[in-house]
Design brief:
alpha+beta; eight-stranded mixed β-sheet; 42% strand; elongated; FACT complex subunit POB3; transcription regulation; RTT106/SPT16-like_middle_dom; nucleosome binding
Length: 513
C-alpha cells in the first residue's frame, strides 16, 4: 500500500520569513522552503500532541514532540481545519485540539515560562507568547519595571533572517510588576520585578555563561559612548558588555565595522565598534561603541583556547598568550573573532601638528574628526560616520580674505547626496591647507563660501548712488557686520541712536553730511 502524501502550500515554519510546502504522510511530515535550502522533517513516532489556534499569519498548527520541543507551522486558512484534523487522526492517531486565546485586550495578567516561551495570559487564557530565544537583553529600568529587547537568535542564521524580514518589527517590551516576594529561607523580601528579571536572564540564557566558556575578560574598560565603565567578556560567537546597571549580549555577526584610532592628545587610543542593529538603552540607539585605552598601558592575558583550536578554527590569527599594549590585544581579538578588518588612520592625511585627526565641534559637542581612506568619522559624541561615496560636496566657510582672514577658525559642511548635511565648526585655521589637499586627493568636490556683505549692500542701496558714496557705505556695512572699528573715524555710533523730531528719518540716515 502506497504512503499517501497530503500537501499544504504557502506555509511558514516558526518565525521564518520564507514560504514553503508542508507535506504529511504516514511516516511523518516535512517542510521545504520554496527558495533556498530550508528543510525540516519529523518522524511520526516523535509526534506527541497537536493544537490548532489563531496566529498572526492566519492559523497555526502547533506540534509538541516527545523530547519537549515545540514546532509551529503558520499560514493555514480557516477551511483547512477539517482536512488537517482528518489527516492527523488517520496518519498519526492524534486529536487536533483547538486552543482559544484571550481577545479582551487587557494589558494586565499573569506570566509563565513554558516550552521556551514567555506566556502572557488573562483569566487563564493565553494572550500572547514571546520566544525566549528571541530575547537578546533584559534590564531593570525602574524599581517595578523590567525591559526586554528582542533581536533574534545569535549566529549567522539569526542575522540573515533579521535582514530578510520586512516591515516593522517588535524590538522592545516593558513589564510593570509591583509588589515583593519573600526570599527563600530569609526574612527579607525581594521585589517581584527583580525576581522576574532574574527569571528572564536564566530562561533566555542571557545571564552568566557557563564557567570555562569565555575566551578572555577585559575588566573595567572605559567607554565614552555610551558613557561608563564596562567589563568586556568575549566568547566564541558573542561578547558580554557588563556595566553597573546594564548587561548586553552582542553577537559578532552584528559587528560591521572596527576602527583603531590614535587620539590627538598622544596619550590615548580609541577603539570604535560599529553595530547593526544598534545597541539600545531605552529610547536611545547607539550604532557605535567608543572605547578609550591609555596608549602605554599593557596587559598580560592568556586565552582560554587550546593550541589546536587556535590553529584550525582561527587559522593562527590568535596567540595563546599576550604581553603587550592593551589596545593591541583588544583590536587583534576583535579582528579574529568577528572576521572584520580594523580601519586605521589614512596615510594621506596629517594635521598641522602631525596628528591623524582635527579637533572640531558638531553643534555643541566637542570632538575629533578623522579623515580616513574611505570615510570621515567624528567621535566621541555623537559618533558620526560619513562615507566618501555619499558625499556630494564639501563647503568651507570663513576661509577667504577680508575680515574672515582674521578669524582663527573656520567651518566645514558635508553636503550629502541624500540631502542631509553635517556641519563642523571651530576648526583651527592652520588645518585648512592639509584638509583641502586631502579632499583633492580623494577627488571630493569642494567649494568656499565667504561672507559677502558688500554685494548684499550694493543690492540694497540700488544703482543711483555715486561711486564715492557707495564705497563709503560699503565700508561702513562691513565694519558693522563684523563688529570692527572704523579706522578713519568717520562714523559716530552714538549719533546713530539720537532721536530726532524730523519726519524724514530715512533721508537723514543716508545723508553723510
Amino acid at each position: 500500500m502506497s504512503d499517501k502524501v497530503n500537501q499544504f502550500d504557502d506555509i511558514f515554519l516558526g518565525l521564518a520569513p520564507e514560504l514553503g510546502l508542508l507535506r504529511l504522510a504516514q511516516s511523518g511530515l516535512g517542510w521545504k522552503a520554496r527558495k533556498g535550502e530550508g528543510l525540516f522533517t519529523v518522524r511520526d513516532a516523535d509526534l506527541k500532541r497537536t493544537t490548532w489556534l489563531r496566529a498572526a499569519r492566519n492559523f497555526q498548527l502547533r506540534i509538541q514532540l516527545r523530547d519537549g520541543r515545540i514546532v509551529k507551522f503558520e499560514g493555514f486558512q480557516r477551511d483547512d481545519y477539517e482536512k488537517l484534523k482528518d489527516i492527523i487522526r488517520t496518519n498519526y492517531g492524534l486529536q487536533l485540539e483547538t486552543k482559544e486565546l484571550s481577545v479582551k485586550g487587557w494589558n494586565w495578567g499573569e506570566t509563565d515560562f513554558s516550552n521556551g516561551n514567555l506566556v502572557f495570559s488573562v483569566q487563564n487564557k493565553d494572550m500572547f507568547e514571546v520566544p525566549l530565544n528571541e530575547v537578546t537583553n533584559t534590564s531593570l529600568t525602574a524599581k517595578h519595571e523590567v525591559m526586554i529587547e528582542l533581536g533574534g537568535p545569535d549566529g549567522e542564521g539569526g542575522a540573515q533572517r533579521d535582514k530578510q524580514r520586512k516591515g516593522d518589527q517588535l524590538v522592545e517590551m516593558r513589564f510593570y510588576i509591583p509588589g515583593s516576594k519573600p526570599q527563600d529561607g530569609e526574612g527579607d523580601e525581594e521585589s517581584a520585578a527583580n525576581v522576574f528579571y532574574n527569571l528572564i536572564k536564566n530562561e533566555a540564557d542571557i545571564g552568566d555563561a557557563a564557567p570555562g566558556d569565555g575566551i578572555v575578560l577585559f575588566s573595567d574598560t572605559l567607554c565614552l559612548t555610551p558613557r561608563g565603565r564596562y567589563d568586556i567578556d568575549m566568547f566564541p560567537t558573542f561578547l558580554r558588555l557588563r556595566g553597573k546597571t546594564t548587561d548586553y549580549k552582542i553577537a559578532y555577526t552584528s559587528i560591521i565595522k572596527l576602527f583603531l584610532l590614535p587620539k590627538p592628545d598622544e596619550v590615548h587610543v580609541l577603539f570604535v565598534i560599529g553595530l547593526d542593529p544598534p545597541l539600545r538603552q531605552g529610547q536611545t540607539r547607539y550604532p557605535f561603541l567608543v572605547f578609550q585605552f591609555v596608549r602605554e598601558e599593557e596587559t598580560d592575558v592568556t586565552l582560554n583556547l587550546d593550541e589546536e583550536t587556535i590553529a584550525t578554527k582561527y587559522e593562527g590569527k590568535l596567540e595563546k598568550k599576550y604581553e603587550t599594549r592593551t589596545y593591541e590585544v583588544v583590536s587583534t581579538l576583535f579582528k579574529a573573532l568577528t572576521g572584520r578588518r580594523v580601519t586605521i588612520p589614512s596615510e594621506f592625511f596629517k594635521s598641522y601638528h602631525n596628528h591623524s585627526a582635527i579637533k572640531c565641534s558638531m553643534k555643541a559637542n566637542e570632538g575629533v574628526l578623522y579623515p580616513l581612506d574611505k570615510s570621515f568619522l567624528f567621535i566621541p559624541k555623537p559618533p558620526t560616520f560619513i562615507p566618501h561615496s555619499e558625499i556630494g560636496s564639501v563647503t568651507f566657510s570663513r576661509v577667504g580674505g577680508g575680515a574672515a582672514s582674521a578669524a582663527r577658525t573656520f567651518d566645514l559642511k558635508f553636503n550629502m547626496k541624500s540631502g542631509v548635511d553635517y556641519s563642523f565648526s571651530s576648526i583651527n585655521r592652520e588645518e585648512y591647507t592639509n584638509l583641502n589637499e586631502f579632499l583633492q586627493i580623494k577627488k571630493i568636490k569642494t567649494k568656499s563660501m565667504d561672507d559677502e556683505p558688500t554685494g548684499r549692500y550694493v543690492e540694497m542701496v540700488g544703482e543711483s548712488d555715486s561711486e564715492e558714496d557707495t564705497g563709503q557705505r560699503k565700508r561702513k556695512s562691513i565694519v558693522q557686520d563684523y563688529g570692527g572699528d572704523d579706522d578713519e573715524g568717520e562714523s559716530s555710533p552714538d549719533e546713530d541712536f539720537v532721536a530726532d523730531d524730523s519726519e524724514s528719518d530715512v533721508a537723514e540716515e543716508f545723508d553723510e553730511n
